[in-house]
Design goal:
alpha/beta, nine-stranded mixed beta sheet, 10 helices, globular
Amino acid sequence: MKNNNDYKNKVRDVYNEIANHYLDNFSKGRLRLLFDLIQDSIKVHITEEIEHVLDAGGGMGHFGMVAAERGALVTVIDIAKSMLDVGRELSLKNGLNNKMIYKEGDVEKLEIQDNTFDFIISEGSVLSFLSNPQQALNEFYRVLRPKGKALLSVQNRMYFMYESHSLPVIQAVYKSGRVFPQINSSSDYRCTTHSFMPEEIRSMIKQSGFDILYFRPRFIVASRFEDIDMKLDSDPSFYQEMLLFEKKLECNPEFINLGRMFSILIEKPGKTKPRKVDK
């Protein structure tokens, strides 16, 4: 980005503007399917041993609440105050306010002590909305405990190239990785985001010091068919069929370049330090 502060301000302004209706985007059709795919993925990894979770760039903490429901104490950090305010109300409504901490802040400059968290959630392609994703990954590494894990997703550049029907747009996306709002048709966020080639994001993760536990495609089939939205909402059996089908395809490395995004599980190497036990 030419001006990092301008870009951050743009992202902050957009999310503050849409905060009150943000979850409406995920209440129906294909985006509801994506929402459930992410939630189910989080449930797999939040075990009873995980006590402290960071929801980095988590907005209202809707994904962090999945961890809170499983007993973890969740800290949500986001630059959009309105998203955090809505999240506090939502956590109170769901009886999770004693498990959710909301802080306004920048995930590229976390005001958190080293080795604080057992797990980081950074879903919804948060890294694609940052001006310096490498710095955010470095911060994730710093605040995770040894053997701590992070579940990430980022936008897949090849998907947006495939879905673009204009040669100049394809060339522009390929060259810069920038995804403009007009070709990110399922979003009304009006933010230009960054999409990644597989080896680009792999290299950044390894540069930060992480080990990659898995690197998978996500949202492979449903993302391409707008005409299934009504059937997903009206036919529960079809919805479950698509949900299971997407999960099956995620586990097949042959489809890595076909997903709208990459789902990535990473781990900070090192020995797990024993926790202090209160006597």
